[in-house]
Structures
1.
Amino acid sequence: MPIIEVKQLSKTYRVYKKREGLLESVRGLFHRQYRDVPAIRGIDLTVEQGEFVAFLGPNGAGKTTTLKVLSGVIHPSGGDVRVMGYVPWERSNEYRRRFALVMGQKNQLWWDLPAQESYRLHQQIYAIQASEFQRSLAELTDLLGVRDLLGQPVRELSLGERMKMELIAALLHSPDVLFLDEPTIGLDVIAQHRIQQFLRYYQEKRQITILLTSHYMKDIAALCRRVVIIASGQIKYDGSLSGIIDNFSSSKIVTLELAGGEQPTDLETIGQVLDTNWPKARLRVQRTDVPTRLSAALARYRLTDVAVEDPPLEEVIADLFAQVDDRASTAEGLS
Amino acid sequence: MNRALHFARETTLADRIRTWWVILRISLEERLVYRGDFALGTLMRFLPIITQIFLWGAIFQSAIGHDAGSAGAQNPSAVPQTATSQIALGGYRFDDMVAYYLMTMIARAFSSMPGLSSGIASQIRQGEIKRYLIQPVDFIGFLLLQRLAHKVAYYSVALLPFALVFFLCRNYFVDGWPEPGRLIAFVASLMIGFLIGFFLEATIGMIGFWFLEVSSLLFIYMLGSFFLSGHMFPLTLLPDWIEWLVQMLPLKYLAYFPAAVFLGKIPADELPQEMLIQAAWLGFFIILCRFTYAAGIRRYSGFGG
C-alpha cells in the first residue's frame, strides 16, 4: 500500500481584493470583493514507503500548499488525500504523532531557552519513552555534531546550528513521514552539505518517507532519486532527475577546440555561439541536428577536440519554469 | 500495533499531567529570563497608590464640607481619622477606599493578562499557529499553562513589594482580617477571576482569525474593563441604574468582586449565589473560547494559513 496517496487534489485560495485609494479602501470595509486564486489544480501523486521525493517548482507553484495539505494545516478545495491511511486535515493525534513538518523559515524551538528544554517538551507532547528519547537524542546530536550546543539558548545559535536543532526536534519522535520545506534556505555551503549528508544517512538507515521542497539543485541532486516538478499548480514532470534533461532539453552543448590559432567567424552556421575562449568555442545545437552539424564542423575546421554535453540541469529547469510562466501569463491575459 | 500503542499512551491521565507539568516548568524557566524586567515593572505598579490616597482624601474632605478646615484640604492625607471615618460613599469609608484599591491591585494581578490577546493575534498573523495544528498538543491548554507560569513567575518576584506596600498600608484595613469562610471565598474568586480573564482575553485574541489586527478592539476592551471592572472605584459608587447594569456584566469579577468579598462588602447571604454566577460566567467564557477557536481554525485552514 502506498504511504501517500493524492488524487485530483485542488486548492483555491480566496483572496481579498484590495483596491487602490482611500475611498475604495473605506468602501472595502463594507463590501469586500474576493478573487479566487487557484494554487493547486488537480494533482495526482503516489509515494511508496521509503521514497525520498523532491518537489521542484518556481515560487508560487503550489509546493508549499501541497505540503500544508499533507500535514493537515489546510483543507483542500477538492480531491482526496491519504497519508498512512489518515485524512490529514482531520488532525487526529495518532496521525500527528507519526509525521513531522520542518519549515526552513519557521522556528518551533523556544527562542530564549536551550534546545534541550524544547526537546523535553517534545518528549511529553509526543509521548516518547525516556529510554527511547535519550537514545534518539544522543544519536541525532552526534550525527549532526551539535551535542555541545544543547545547553545554549537557541537565540545564541547560528542559522545553520538552529536548523540542525530544528531537524532534531522534528525527528525525536521517529516520524514515519517527514515533510521538509526549504530546509537549507539561507545556509552556507558547509552547513547545507552537512544537512544533506545527515538527511541521506538518516533516510537510508530508517527507510522513512521524505518529501522535500528546495530551490537548491544541489540538495535535490544529492538526495532524491525522484523529482516532481510542479508549476502553476499542476504536475509537469514526475521521474528521475536525469530524465528531466531528456524530457525538457531540446539542445546540446557542443564544445569545439580549434587547431592552429584559427578563429572562424562563421561558427553561427554550426550552432548558436554561447561563448568563445580561443582555441575553444561553445555552441548550442538542436539535439536532432547534432550529427549533421558536427560532421559539417569536422569538414570545415581543423579540430583538436570535440565535446558534446547536456546543458546544465539548472539551465534546463530555469527554461522550463520560464516557459510555464509565459504560458500562464498569456492564459491570464486572455481571460 | 504502533497505532494502538500511541492511543493507549494518550489516555493515561498521569502522562497528561506530566505533560502539563513540563509545559509549566519550561514556561516558568522562559519567564525567569526576563525577571529583571518585571521586578522593576512591579515596583512601578505601586506608584499610583500614592495618588489614590491623596485623591480619595480630597474627595472625602469635600464631602465632609467646610468645617474640616482648609488645612486638611492642603494636605488631604492629614485628614483627621475621626472626621473621615464617619462618612461612607457607596458603603465605603475613606480607609475602605484605600484598602479597596489595594485589594483590586491583587485581583488585577490575577485577572489581567498582559500580552495574551495581542500574542495570539500575532501568532495567527505570522502563521506560528500552524505548530499547534501539526503537533498533538492543545493550543488553549498550552496557553493556559503558559499563562499560569507567567503568573507564578510574576508573584515570585512581586511578593516582596506587595508585602511591603500592604504592611505600610495595614492601618487602612480597619476591620482586620476577614473570617475564614470569607477568606476562602476571596481566594476562590481570585482563581475564577484569573480563569475568566484568561478565557475572555484569549477569545479576543482569536478574533485575529477574522481580522488581522485586534489592537483597537483590545483597546476598547481595556477601556471598558478599566471602568466597569471596578478597578478605579467600587461599583457601588455608580448611579443605581448604571450600577445595576454593570453588576450584570462579567467584568466586575476581574477586580471589584474579589476586593468586595475580602472587605466584607458582599452580604453573607448573597455570597454563595454570587460565587455561583461567577462560576457560570467562567463556564460561558470557556465555551465561547473553545467555540471561537474551533471556528477560527476552520476558517484558517479553509482559507489557507
Note: Residues 294 and 300 of chain B are 10 Å apart (CA to CA).
2.
Amino acid sequence: MSAPFLEIDRLSVRLRRGGAGRLLRQVSIAVAPGEVHGLVGESGAGKSMIGRAIFGILPRAVEVIEGAVRLGGTDLFALSDRRRRRLVGVTASLIPQDPLTALNPSKRIEVQMTDRLTKILGLTGAAARARALGLLEEVHIQDPARVFRSYPHELSGGMRQRVLIASAFAAEPRLIVADEPTTALDVTVQKQILKLIAEMQRRHGTALLFVTHNLGVVAKICQRVSVLYAGKIVEQTDVATLFAAPAHAYTRALMAATPRYDRPDESLAPVRPEVIEALAREIAASDADWREARLARGEGRA
Amino acid sequence: MAEPRAIHRRLNVRLWLGGSWIGLLFFCAIFAGALAPHDRLAQDLMLQTLPPAWIDGAEPGYYLGTDSLGRDILARILYATRPALIVAIVASSAACAFGSLLGLMAGFFGGWTDRVISRLVDIWMAFPPVLLSILLVAVMGPGLSSVIIAIAVIDWTRFCRVVRAEAMQQRRMDYVDSAKAMGYGTGRIMAREVLPNVLPAILVLFSLEMGIAVIVEAILSFVNLSISTDDPTWGSMIAEGRSIVHQAWWVLVFPLLCLFLTVLAFSQFGEGLKERFDPVMR
C-alpha cells in the first residue's frame, strides 16, 4: 500500500475553558490515496471534530493541544495560517453534512462551482464553465445547464448534495472528508448518494475519510474503519476483520444494535451499561496515563 | 392556487403604492422649479393666509393657499421635497454603511468583538434619540450637513443590531465553513459570502430608515434647528402653521400630510420589499 496522504497523529483537542477533559484523545488515523476510511461512533463522539480539525474550522471554543495533522507529509500546524489555508484548500475538500445550508443561498450554482475552479485551478470563463458542467454530468444530473442557472433553494436536497459532491471533486483534491453526507437526506436518496460518492472516489483515486454513524454504510464502501467513543479510538482495523471478529466489546455492542435486513426477526440489543462502564474505566485509565506522561515531560496543566 | 396568487397581489400593492409615492417625490424634487406655480420665497402681504382653491375666498393660481407671509404653500411643499430626500438618502446611507459594517463584524467574529460592539450599541440606545439629535445639531450649528450627521450618528445602531443578528445566523451555516475549508480569507468570506445573504435585511431597513430620517429632519426643523435659511422644509412649515392653525389650518395640514404619506410610503415600501424577498431567502 502506498504512503498515506492524510496522517492524523495523536491529535488531542479540548475546550478552551473546559477543565482537564479532552474532546479528542490522541486520535491517530492514516488514509492512503484511493483508500476509504470509515469513522464511526455515536453522536457527540467527536467524529465531525476530526474532520473540522483537518480544515482548521474547529469551533472557536475548541483548541488543539497536541498532535499533528499531515497532508502529503506536511504538518499543517507548523504552517502559517495563510499557507495552511492554501495547502488545505488545494489538496482537500469537504462534503458537508447538511446540503441545505452548505450552498450559499444567494448565489447561482454556476457561480459557486466556477468560483472554486477559479480559486484552486486558476480556470476562468469558458474553461471553468465547461469543467463545472462536465462535473455535474459526472454526478448524474440530467439537465446540468438548468441546475447551473438555479439558486440552491430551487433544488431538492439530493440534487444539492450531488452539486456539493461535484464541487468537492471539482479541483481534483487528494483528500475528501465526507461528514455524514447522507444523514440529512431521504432514505431513498441516501443510497444513491452513497453509491455516487463511492463511484467518484474510485474514479478519481481520492483518499476519502467517511464520517458516519451507520455501520451498514461502513461495510459497503470502506476498507478501513475507526470506531470512536468519547473522542477515543477504541478499535481501528480493516472492515473485513471488524465485521468478522470485532475486538472491542463496544464494537460488538454497536453491531448488535444495528438492524439487519437478513435477520428481520432478531430484536435489537441496546448497548448494555456494563459495556459503557468498562469504556468509562478504559478512558479514565488512558487519561491518567496521558496526564502523567505530560507532567513527566513538564508540559500542560494537570 | 387562488390563495398564493392573492398573497402575491397584496405584496405588490404595498410595494407599488409606496414606490409610486416615493417616485412622485423624486419627480417633484427634480422638477420643483418647473412645477411650482409661484416663487417659494416671494412674500406678498396682500395675499396673506389665502385658503386652498376649493374654499370661498381663494385666489386663482394658489391651489393650496398661502401662509401668513403670503407665500404659496404648494411651491414651498414642492421645494421642501429636496431637503427631505437629500436627508433621507445621505443620512440613511451613512447610518447604513457604518452600522452594517460594525454589525457584520460583531455577528461574524462573535466573542470579544461582539461584546465590545454590542455594549456600545446598548449605551448608544440608552440616550433619548430626539434629545441627542437636538443636542448634536445645537453643537454643530444648524444646516443640512449637521442634520445629516446627527441622524447618522443616532441611527447606525438600528442597522448594527439587525445586521449582527443576521450575520450570526449566517455564520452558523455550512457554506461559511465550506468557504473557509476552501481557503478563503475572512475578508472575502464576509464580503462575498455572508454580506449578500444579509443584504435583503439591510435593504428593508434602509427603506424604513429613510422614513425615520425624514421625521427626524422634520422634528429638528420644528424646533428651529434645521436648515437655517428661508428655504422651506416640511418641519419648518408645520412649525409656522402651528401658531395660526385656528385661522388658517391649511398652512399646517398640507405639509403634515406630505410628511405622513412619505413616512408611510417608505415603511410600506420596506415591508413590501421584505415580503418580496422572504420566500426566496428562507
Note: Residues 174 and 180 of chain B are 10 Å apart (CA to CA).
